[in-house]
Design a protein that fits this description.
single chain; alpha/beta; TIM Barrel; eight-stranded parallel beta barrel; 13% strand; globular
Length: 256
């Protein structure tokens, strides 16, 4: 049950949210990062995804972040907004606000503790006119999305960050289009199997390497898996340290 078109094809990046040394939102610096990534060939950017420390952001900060990134990107790539939340009511509110703020599509993490996420996605999809990507990532919000309900979700696609190639193959069978891997280790395989794209955190630091792997460079894909590219440490803090070393951006996080 496909609703709308996949928002982009190719490599997308869930951008980190940059803060000042005092921990305040630096929307301008985050917008500059988004513009740099798009100039490097990234086909889509997501704000307030799991890499963007969304639980630490106020609704007003989410709006300011989205506005800054949209302005910086200038229509050269779609901007997705992360609007997943613990309850459907919260996700609907965040989704409506993101739509009003000019998001091109929504990336909606499944709700924690929900064995059947269909009512949640039904509520979000009914509340907005934007393409909705469901988001399966149990480490951030368990149990995730059962594969046997995927075809019944009112979504334009799915992001799966588990890095499980078997599950990815099943998802591609269940959905007509719009399947994205969130694993930098699977990009070459994901494209070969028919995914629409990848939405990978490592793209914050190494967009060129991620694009090369997506385009079929097996040696580059191997370097991404082995950690021989980019030098980003683990998690959000590692990405921010790598960006600080490369561009001088602030490495402050609100989590961890």
């Amino acid at each position: 049950m496909s609703h709308g078109h996949a928002p982009f094809t190719g490599v997308g990046v869930p951008i980190v949210t940059l803060f000042t040394r005092d921990g305040d939102l630096d929307a301008g610096a985050t917008g500059d990062l988004a513009a740099r990534l798009v100039a490097a060939g990234v086909q889509g950017v997501a704000v307030a995804g799991t890499t963007g420390e969304p639980a630490t952001l106020t609704p007003d900060e989410r709006s300011a972040l989205l506005a800054a990134v949209r302005d910086a990107v200038g229509g050269r790539a779609p901007v997705l907004a992360g609007t997943g939340a613990p309850s459907a009511r919260q996700a609907v509110e965040l989704s409506r606000r993101a739509e009003a703020d000019g998001a091109d599509a929504l990336l909606v993490l499944s709700p924690p503790g929900a064995e059947d996420p269909r009512p949640y996605y039904d509520a979000v999809a009914a509340a907005v006119a934007l393409p909705v990507l469901a988001y399966h990532f149990p480490p951030s919000s368990a149990p995730g999305i059962p594969v046997d309900v995927l075809a019944q979700l009112p979504v334009a696609g799915l992001k799966d960050s588990t890095g499980d190639p078997v599950r990815l193959a099943v998802e591609l069978d269940e959905l007509d289009s719009g399947v994205y891997t969130g694993s930098a280790a699977l990009m070459l395989q994901a494209r070969a199997m028919g995914c629409s794209g990848a939405i990978v955190a490592l793209g914050n630091v190494d967009p060129a390497g991620c694009i090369r792997a997506w385009e079929g460079d097996g040696a580059c894909q191997r370097e991404l898996v082995s950690g021989h590219r980019a030098g980003a440490g683990s998690g959000i803090a590692g990405i921010k340290r790598a960006l600080n070393a490369r561009y001088g951006t602030c490495a402050v996080t609100r989590v961890g």
